[in-house]
Write a structure and sequence with these properties.
Blueprint (H helix, E strand, L loop, with lengths): L2 H4 L3 H23 L4 H25 L3 H16 L1 H10 L5 H5 L3 H17 L5 E7 L2 E6 L1 H27 L3 H30 L8 H19 L9 H8 L3 E5 L5 E4 L1 H7 L3 H4 L8 E2 L10 E8 L5 E12 L5 E10 L1 H52 L4 H36 L7 E3 L1 H12 L7 E6 L6 E3 L1 H19 L3 E10 L2 E8 L6 H4 L19 H11 L3 E6 L5 E8 L4
Parallel strand pairs: 10-12
Antiparallel strand pairs: 1-2, 3-4, 3-8, 5-6, 6-7, 7-8, 9-11, 12-13, 13-15, 14-15
Length: 585
């Protein structure tokens, strides 16, 4: 057959078209995600299709039967390894596909490698013979082709069925939109290759070998959907993936259902689990407390991540919605950052702020302790005098009076010592750093403790009104909340001076508990209202305030998932509301 006749030869045109589409699709898929293993395997599969198709061209143009048979043998790797490559592709895609496919991959390559060796070393087993037809030399398949075809179907059909199931059940609107095209692209070679390349030739029926073109068409469908939606259905990433994996923070693509679709190496390091165990797992199962619908809007929260070794790591979770080029929902990108160092620094800052507050109270506390100690000392002096008089054996009537007075003195002394001890206990409980762990907090009891600690700093003309309603426990760290409310009470006392009223009240609003600290003092000027949460901003005289109290309090409340609201006007007082989540346990 002359070369010029091949220009109008349909089988050759089909083979050339398959080789071109296969090579172009392989390049497009690999370029879309360079470095992504799934894309590399898909590119290798389509390169094999192009190799297979070019072998068909050489076979059709062969000058004699021996050259035609040799061309068929050379092209065999392009179609024999379709099954192992499909299984390998499934093993690196979304979990849990990889869980069952991964251990089978090396055995699959070994099995089909044996099939290829049979094609090359056992004449007639894979290719029975070649015959001359008007369009060129064609191969009559041997029994080995049936074996390879069945083995390939055993590999491809379950993988394809599982892929369709994953896409159909995927909560991602983008995945569901690609399902029809991908299903058609998978079904085409599954039906076409056995029919036109095996069954009809073995039955002696003339047919055009459409197998390579059908498989190349599947590659074109994958490349087209990837271009249209902006992400390959086989794997996501490329250079961006390498950058994300190198980042110390954990990054994950989370579907709207809350399942992790793709996890970075940083998240694997943070959780102590490999990425293939994270993919397909619910994000909420890693966090305590879990997020609330992170995929619907951008959000930032602080929580704890549960590692595989049982350690609870403080983390921040930043979520951002994600959509493809057509605006279809993909879920959200979640960035999880290790806050262990930040938590340590924050704890030191809170402790420093607490000790600074205690420094402001030091004079008042010393006075509170000095008063009971003074009359304890006086009582002990009187008791010593009474004992000395008892040694002189006074008359019975005087002795009875001395014993009665001694009982009163001892009772008063014990009361004074108990009062001093209570002050020391309250100060010690307040200044203790605490663990920072969340637990149910009875706010009424906590506020009473804070009021006792703050009382030495309140002038005699300051009246404290308690309006404690029955409320559920708050979810918080007690020591940190004590710091917040002490700062508020000290600020209220400073605003009042020597005369006024401080009202402390609790209430329940929706799914939160609220503590309000109100005073009828001087209020906050409008120019200062926006600066009260700035670090080192203070209206107190030099040496009396650090300017860190409200800043630290605001950070504590925010880290608790609460709100901090200040309402104030000059000469009309100030009302500070702290909203805290209710303990869910």
């Amino acid at each position: 057959m002359r070369v010029e006749e091949a220009c109008v030869n349909l089988p050759i045109l089909i083979a050339l078209l398959a080789a071109t589409i296969g090579a172009a699709s392989a390049a497009a898929i690999v370029t879309l995600g360079p470095g992504v293993r799934a894309n590399q395997l898909a590119g290798l599969l389509l390169t094999g299709v192009a190799w297979w198709a070019m072998g068909d061209v050489l076979r059709l143009l062969a000058p004699d039967a021996s050259w035609a048979l040799r061309a068929a043998e050379v092209s065999a790797p392009g179609w024999i390894f379709m099954g192992p490559l499909a299984l390998h592709l499934a093993s690196v895609m979304r979990a849990p596909a990889g869980a069952w496919a991964r251990p089978l991959v090396p055995w699959s390559y070994a099995l089909f490698g044996a099939f290829l060796a049979g094609a090359w070393l056992a004449p007639g087993w894979m290719f029975e013979k070649v015959i001359r037809e008007p369009d060129g030399w064609v191969v009559v398949p041997g029994p080995g082709v049936i074996v390879v075809m069945l083995a390939t179907l055993v590999h491809v059909v379950p993988v394809a069925a599982y892929g369709v199931r994953v896409f159909r059940r995927s909560p991602s609107a983008s995945d569901r939109a690609r399902l029809r095209w991908l299903a058609a692209g998978v079904a085409l070679p599954i039906v076409t290759i056995p029919t036109f390349n095996v069954i009809l030739p073995m039955l002696g029926q003339p047919s055009v070998r459409l197998g390579s073109l059908a498989l190349a068409t599947f590659g074109a469908v994958v490349a087209w959907t990837a271009h249209r939606h902006g992400a390959s259905p086989l794997g996501r990433g490329g250079l961006a993936r390498q950058i994300v994996d190198a980042h110390p923070d954990g990054v994950a693509l989370v579907f709207p259902s809350g399942e992790i679709g793709s996890a970075s190496e940083g998240l694997a390091r943070l959780t102590g689990r490999p990425t293939w165990l994270l993919e397909g797992r619910s994000l909420d199962s890693l966090l305590n407390p879990p997020l609330e619908e992170p995929q619907r809007e951008a959000s930032y929260v602080e929580t704890h991540l549960c590692r595989d070794d049982g350690e609870r790591v403080p983390v921040s979770v930043d979520t951002r919605p994600l959509a493809d080029r057509r605006g279809l929902d993909l879920g959200c990108v979640v960035v999880i950052r290790d806050l262990r160092e930040v938590a340590d620094l924050r704890s030191q800052l809170v402790t420093s702020g607490r000790l600074a507050s205690m420094g402001q109270l030091a004079a008042g506390i010393a006075h509170e302790i000095n008063n009971p100690m003074a009359f304890v000392r006086t009582n002990l002096t009187l008791l010593r005098e009474h004992w000395q008089r008892m040694e002189k054996e006074p008359p019975p009537a005087e002795r009875e009076n001395l014993l009665s007075e001694a009982d009163e003195l001892l009772e008063e002394s014990l009361e004074g010592v108990e009062r001093a001890c209570a002050i020391v206990r309250d100060v010690n409980a307040f200044s203790h750093a605490g663990t920072g762990e969340r637990e149910p907090v009875e706010l009424a009891e906590l506020l009473e403790n804070v009021l006792r600690v703050a009382s030495p700093h309140l002038h005699r003309g300051v009246r404290v009104v308690r309006r404690f309603r029955t409320i559920p426990p708050a979810d918080g760290a007690p020591q940190e909340l004590k710091q917040v409310f002490l700062n508020l009470l000290l600020n209220a006392a400073h605003a009042l001076g020597e005369l006024g009223t401080i009202t402390v009240e609790t209430a329940t609003e929706s799914n939160a508990v609220v503590v309000r600290v109100c005073d009828d003092g001087c209020g906050i000027p409008e120019a200062d209202r926006e600066k009260v949460f700035d670090p080192f901003f203070t209206t107190k005289p030099v040496g009396e305030g650090t300017g860190m109290g409200l800043f630290i309090s605001y950070q504590i409340v925010r880290n608790h998932g609460g709100e901090f609201i200040i309402e104030s006007a000059p000469d009309q007082g100030t009302r500070v509301s702290v909203r805290l989540p209710i303990h869910s346990g």
